[in-house]
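Escalation from tier 1.

The customer reports that the assembly of two entities below gives different structure tokens on two consecutive runs. Tier 1 could not reproduce it. I'm attaching the input and our single run for tier 2 to review.
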Amino acid sequence: MFDFSIVTGWLHNWLLGFMPEWLTTTVECVLIGVLMIVAYAVLAMVYIFYERKLCAWMQCRLGPTRVGPWGLFQLFADVFKMLIKEIIRLENIDRFLFALAPYLVIVASMLTFACLPWGNGLQIIDFNIGVFFMVAASSIGVLGILLAGWSSNNKYTLIGAMRSGAQMVSYELSVGLSILTIVVLAGTMSITELVEAQSDGWFLFKGHIPAFIAFVIYLIAANAETNRGPFDMPEAEHELTAGYHTEYSGMHFGFFYLAEYLNLFIVSGIASLLFLGGWMPLHVPGWDGFNAVMDYIPSIVWFIGKALFVTFLLMWFRWSYPRVRIDQMLKLEWKYLMPIGLFNLILMTLVVMYDLHF
Amino acid sequence: MNLQEKIASLCPSATFEEGEYLLVNVADKEWHSLAESLKKELGFDYLVSVTGVDWNESLGCMYYLTNTETNEKVSVKVATTDRENPMLHSVSDLWKVALIQEREVYDFFGIVFIGHPDMRRLFMRTDWVGYPLRKDYDANPELNPIRLDAEENEDDSFVVTEDENGKLTKTDYKIFSENDYVVNFGPQHPSTHGVMRLRSAVDGETITKVVPVCGYIHRGIEKLCEGKTYPQTLFFTDRMDYMSSCQNRHCLCLCIEKALGLEVPRRAQIIRVMFDELMRIGSHILAYGCMAMDMGATTAFVYGFREREQLMDIFEKTTGGRMSQHYHVIGGVAADVHPDFIKDVREFCAILPSKVKEYHTLVTGNVIFKNRTIGVGVIGKEDVISYGTSGPNGRASGWSCDVRKRAPYAIYNELNFDEVIYNEGDSFARYMVRMDEVMQSVKLLEQLCDMLEKEEGNEYIAPKVPKIIKLPAGHWFQEVEASRGAFGVYIESDGGKNPYRMHFNSPGLNHVAAVDKCCAGYKIADLITISASLDYVIPDIDR
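Tier 1 run:
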């Protein structure tokens, strides 16, 4: 399997050849930053197109078809429209917090984005508490949403923000517990080591029953974390018109929109990292020939493919189910998901202690 | 003892007129006690319509009452000669539907109802000058210019009470207190299904009170009708409830034909009923789609539209119209059906059951959908009768209110179908009634296709419809079962070619009156599902 650290290592040494070390680090940081922003924007567009086409397919429609082949350029037109739209200045709002909120949301999603293992040796942040950092960074997003709702000085946004506060804080617990279940199985929090540990089988198969329960809980809770249907109460366009971002326009709204789609990619990425082996190809112990063939597929294709698959599952929920009500949603979390998650954690601990996993 | 003798013993001063229904003339000061005994002793528990009329020498109301047990009908005329400060006694304490219908009369005729708890204008702005449906109304545009500012006193209401000595006191009050946190849904909101406003006082996520504000698209159809000839008035009916345009028009045609004594050819009657039932299917499928949509299930919405599209094509082939058909005319229908019509309807009837099954798989069985609808927005049988919420909403609460069964018109008494009744009275029951009625309509259409094929007569319109239609002096009332409930037309004629007064009694207005009753105590999200399950259409409310 091709190791991308050869490329990055060569680049590092080449830069060191004519630059002092501090300058090399700075140049590398800038390069990575630019690459990340580009990847972020491109992925968001891919995702918006993906969702449009997928939901059109589920609804017996065609989706965008007019602009460019298969409607591909529709996205560029939409992004361009978003960029040139006016950012409306509102009276009687908290200007500073109002402007800050979208950036908080986007910063949180970018920080998490940076942790994802894109391929063999292709990773930006990698340290021994990687998963922990990921959970911590992603929970900054709720702050942005709360601020957006509160600072807009509007009843819809305030109700939307209240709902999202209750929802995201609750579901963070379930996400955390299912991640912890896998951490117990792997015995590490480092993202690289997590992926390496799945070289002889993905955790979903290695951890059998408890891992599968954790996967299901993660999918439900992650859907709620990203404020997507059937848990899209903070937006709930049929009740609150647009929830917390009712008052936003232009690129400020665009940031919320981008973050929503990127968060979808991020939770799918985390799901594929924790349960489906990250960039690790499908390996079956003992089948060496099969494993060797699988290794020919580049690791980055594996990762993005798995993320798209998990996203497909999430979109399938989104376009089939009606929205739940706020009290029912909280009941689902506190009465069902969290107790099951806790029980599942104990089950996994027992499985690991008595070495019952594969 | 017949009804007239019974009423005469209850209220000796009342005078009677024979007619289509027994008409009781009663003085205002005896009206409330008569109303009480009519309801409690004679069982007239359903107030069908309150129609304000200006008879020039007097102002007053026509009340149409029905006994839901025996289907007896009676009409009552109450009038006052005081044009400066007209007052009548309210019956809103007996029949809740009067709460909103008497407000409509107040709005258009300026009659203040003594004892009515909330005397605000219903459709017009609070600062509107004059009462538009009075015959002496001054329509000078300088009196009512286009106002660009918001109404400041929209919370102001008053109540006129009468003590034992007959002394009247007027008390002003505000409908929301200062501590109420009022969230405004509408007039521009994705889930109000039109330009309608629901002001809701909330406590956290829980709704404490809902005040509907109507009139944003009121077009004054009743006023316009007074200046049109009878065939011209037909065109307004399609624009009230656009999801039951055929039934509405059928109702007005029936009423005019009744007044003229016109016999409609059988072929035309079959075609009319077929269009009514097709329209009902379209309406119920849309209601299903919108209800799912309001809960966030957009896919179900598109599925509903897929079948409705096929229906629209059937309409378009025969009538040329997709939304407004303008097909029923006085004496029959405008033209014979398209040669493919029966084939298309049969095809549609063949595929629809499988599609309805698909809807049930996608939405009805869904656990989230069930949790959102079962036990939510419950309204009991007595309340639906009192609020007059007829149609599928009434039948979901166990009230057998189908006009097609209760007072069959056209050829409904020859057809075999069941009245769908559920007893739960919650959003889920209202939804299920509609889904089951779609299947009943399919059953009806299959029978009607056979009847139309066998029908030998080829007249689609009565041969002797007069060129200029003049109704004899008098008044008529006709009801049909529209998609959303009992739709009524009241015509008062002075013998001329224009109606003297034409009133449309729309089911939607009664549904809106019941929103507060259904929603209080439930969550904000439930307000949306409950109003979706009540399935009112705004142009029907704002006529």
